[in-house]
């Protein structure tokens, strides 16, 4: 029997959590054992009670260590400690999966060899589940190490990985985790295969507490939030740090990508390298806003 392990980090998720868990219960898989490893990041609402209600139905192993790590570190900890399984999926606490999300992903990954990361498009949904936008990505993302460092097209909640990919990621020594999904994407792009499904396979909820949402914020509020994020201690230099980590750990990447990463790794202290990255032919992304943000942060030496 095929084993699928779903990794979920929760934090005060009572409002939408039941809908997400119900959508996992309703997956159309046959002869598959689904289990969930849930790490709660210090919730103070009814999140734990809701998880207890689904414990038997979804084979939930609940980890409560009362330590607030933040989303990226919490998910990375889950991945590092995940049990042996055929496939792994990250899931957010507030989305809604289509019933065929897992089956479509697994059937595609089965056709391939080696380390595989599958991810899909999504539709944006509101607080009341109504559709805001049919597709998050109008164009297929550029699946290269430089482009994904610039814009990070794939959310973790869209990803399914096979055993080989997760076993490889478990062995990576990394201190700074900008986002768990970006780290997974970069390393599998460098050493395995990334597969994109343009059909939306889940509803990604847009609200004030998640990364995509800008609803309710004025133009100036959005810019203020961006500047705060750029100069925040935990974010400042995170992309440059990841570039250095990839260079250290990843031997099989293409020469062009390696040269780009070597330049990026020197951007904190070398103005010439900053200018070369800003005008580099590999500095490209579908999102103009993400590309503009990256270039500004590179010029400032804080990417």
Commentary on this structure:
This protein has 303 residues and is α/β, with parallel strands linked by helices. The chain has two domains: 2-205, Alpha-Beta Complex (Spore Coat Polysaccharide Biosynthesis Protein SpsA, Chain A), CATH 3.90.550; 219-300, no CATH class. The chain has twelve helices and eleven strands. The chain has helices at 17-25, 47-53, 71-80, 101-110, 145-151, 163-170, 180-191, 219-231, 238-249, 255-265, 271-278, 288-300; strands spanning 2-10, 32-40, 60-64, 87-91, 96-97, 116-120, 123-125, 131-133, 159-162, 193-197, 202-205. A seven-stranded mixed sheet has the order 3-2-1-4-9-6-10, sandwiched between helices. It has a four-stranded mixed sheet with strand order 5-11-7-8. β2, α2 (47-53) and β3 form a beta-alpha-beta unit. α9 packs across α10 (255-265) and α11 (271-278) runs antiparallel to α12. The longest helix is centred in the last third of the chain and has 13 residues, at 219-231. It is globular. It starts with a strand and ends with a helix.
